[in-house]
User: What shape does this take?
Amino acid sequence: TDTDALITSGGVKAYVDTEVSSVDSRVTVAEAEISALQSLTIAVATYSRTANTLYSGTAIIQLSEDSDPDNIGTVLTSGTYDGGVRVSEGIYLITCTGEFAEEDGVNTDYFHVNLRSSGTTLIRERINETGSYNTFEYVTLISVLRVPAGSTRDINIQFQEVNSTYGYSKNVVLTLVKLA
Assistant: This one.
């Protein structure tokens, strides 16, 4: 019939074959992407210091491991960054949360809460005149850190005194999400 001739002739059949091939190709790419995503594992670790702690100078907040099932970090127990967490190569989403207070009626002295990587401040928040030493300001600091292959970084939370004052921290939590 004329319809059979039209379908099997070069034009329509070639067009349909090309479209089917294109769909097959897209399905193969999508399947590969799904497989790659399924093979990813995101590791999460948390470290904290919940105690209400008084500071009268600059100090690294001493963290303890709460959960690190994939061993992505190691709490440092000595050295320059004692109390911080050492991580190896990868890409990390880092979150620091906590409550902080400073109140002495003097605006020219305060504390910085510094989220740091091997001594370099990634992000900071100023804590100044919170109303009383019993009035805490809730702080969230978030950063992304890339640690190159064959390297490590020491992540810590520094409570940095500016001029002479007293400050407090409590319920401080460092969360590391290893993305790659």
